[in-house]
Amino acid sequence: MHLGMSIIRKILIALLVILLLLGAAFWWLARGDTADLSVEAVAGTDPTLAEPNAEIVPTVRIAKPVGWAAGEAPQPAEGLAVGRFAEGLEHPRTVQALPNGDILVALTRAPASEADGGIMAWIADWLMTKAGATGQSPNQIVLLRDSDGDGAAEIRRVIADADAGLDSPSGMSWHDGTLYIANHDEVLAFPYELGAESVSGKARKLMDLPAGGGHWMRNLEINPEGTLLYVAVGSASNIGEGGMEAEQGRAMIWEYNLETNRQRQFAVGLRNPNGLAFSPWTGELWTTVNERDMLGSDLVPDYLTNVPVGAQYGWPWVYWRDNVDERVDAPRPAYIVEYARKPEYALGPHVAALGLVFTTEGHLMGEKFARGAFVARHGSWNRKPPSGYDLVYVAFDERGNPVGKPVPVLGGFLNQDGTTKGRPTWVEWGGDGALLMSDDTAGIIWRVHAPGAKPGAGIARLKSAPLRPQRELTGDSQAVFTQDDYARIVPAQ
To answer: How many Cα atoms within 13 Å fall on the side-chain side of residue 446?
Structure first.
């Protein structure tokens, strides 16, 4: 009897020790990685890139949304004022201005998933629920109109909803009587005349898109000529861990030709492109991109960059042009380290850069914010301490290149107790020249301007001339090519 009790006691002690060790191991893994660098150090044209610290368990620091009290507002930069253009909206994400001054906003969330994604999907859902990002999608496009010019929209109308075919809508663009809307899995075109309080006909499908995935938003931007539509599609995963077959058509920007009704891949290797805008200096397409996770709190910076046709930005194999991510299992394409493009401007690690606009003619932001880009940084869920949760301005030089560090425009979203009043999401110019920014978890569209500022001038387009063709050969006429000059050996990758 005593011998049996002794064995049981030893087994219980051993189990207790194992549980304590497992608890200590879980605490060690779950405590996360604390940043050694400031967000500012990992921002700008020459960010500091730390050594990668691959994580088995991601750093998790969720800022629970608690909302804004009556009369509260974000903290504006000196010389600016902020007010509520609209409130009481259900998860407003993208915002689109129309030529007549009306504002459209997409009320939306991620699409419902019917598949069992396992434990990782459950964890992701739990994290996003805590961050206020889950729930049934409203699937509405709402028109907001400030008829009396007091800086607040007194007219609100739903112009399209699920009955019109909307399913987790996000990107919007309008041209010549047609409203283009991107669902998570397709691009639709609706007949819509300016001033109308509803779309006037059935949707026409332009193209299918990869459905849902880890990044479900699909932004749209039409070129100034109204002939080409650009579609941003994010990846389904962090670094292709589900296989690259699942990433077909993702992590890229598509171009759809509205005249020929044909599409092509415009640029690739962009993990999660979001905001799209054309540079007023050059006419070139620019985007914001959310980079990969689980390399530590200091890596990898999200970025703002131009997007030339055919560009490859390296995801998932490399980041910031030539830094190889050794975690990626998918075979690395030959020469990708050599031909991947370096992003133009880092916005900081894990800031979740979303909405993007450039300074436009008639803006009311004052001289301090007269030549650059505005970016909404939605905020981190996996960095210690948190990053983002603000609206920033990136200055550009006279040749259309970003310079300096991000300048705060709106702050005060994070509370000292780790909660957040809201999350900056999208930016757009209002019809009166003020800057509008959606705050999705708070359900508010904020309006920012410089009181007393006169409408600002637009940015002049750079003029350039093509290089003259070379019409004669120069150099040593006795020079010849040998076999060694053109022989090539493809290196192993």
So the answer is: 31
Between CA 69 and CA 445 the distance in angstroms is 15
Domain ranges within the chain, ordered by starting residue = 28-449
Which burial class, exposed, middle or buried, applies to 19 when counting CB atoms under 10 A from its CB (0-12, 13-18, 19+)?
Answer: exposed
Structural tokens at position 30: 């779950």
Phi-psi region at 377: left, alpha or beta (left = phi > 0; alpha = psi -120 to 50): beta
Q: What pTM did the predictor assign?
A: 0.90
| CATH annotation of 28-449 | 2.120.10.30
User: Helix and strand tally (H, E) in the chain?
Assistant: 4, 28
Q: Which residues contact 466 (CB under 8 A, 6 or more apart)?
A: none
- The CA distances from residue 137 to 167, 178, 245, 314, 440, in Å, are 8, 24, 28, 32, 12
How many other CB atoms sit within 10 Å of the CB of residue 371?
A: 19
CA distance linking residue 388 with residue 181, whole number of Å: 28
What is the pLDDT at residue 124? 60
Reading the block at residue 306, the tokens are: 């131009």
**Backbone dihedral angles phi then psi of residue 379, each to the nearest 5 degrees:** 115, 145
Tokens of 468: 């003259």
How many C-beta neighbours within 10 Å does residue 37 have? 18
C-alpha span between 67 and 65 (Å, rounded)? 6
Question: Would you say 234 and 246 are in contact if contact means Cβ atoms under 8 Å apart?
Answer: no
Contact in structure between 155 and 195 (CB atoms under 8 Å): no
Q: Which two tokens stand for residue 460?
A: 């002049």
pLDDT digits (tens, 9 = 90+) for 374-423: 999 999 999 999 999 999 999 999 999 999 999 999 999 999 999 999 99
List the Cα angle 138/144/150 in 5-degree steps. Answer: 140
- Alpha-carbon 405 to chain mean position: 19
Give the phi and the psi of residue 15 in degrees, each rounded to 5: -65, -40
Rounded Cα gap, residues 120 and 240, in angstroms: 15
> In the beta sheet, which residues pair with residue 155?
145
- Encode pLDDT of 166-189 as tens digits: 999 999 999 999 999 999 999 999
What would the two tokens of residue 121 be? 């999907």
Query: Whose structure tokens read 């999660």?
Result: 272
| DSSP structural state of residue 382 | S
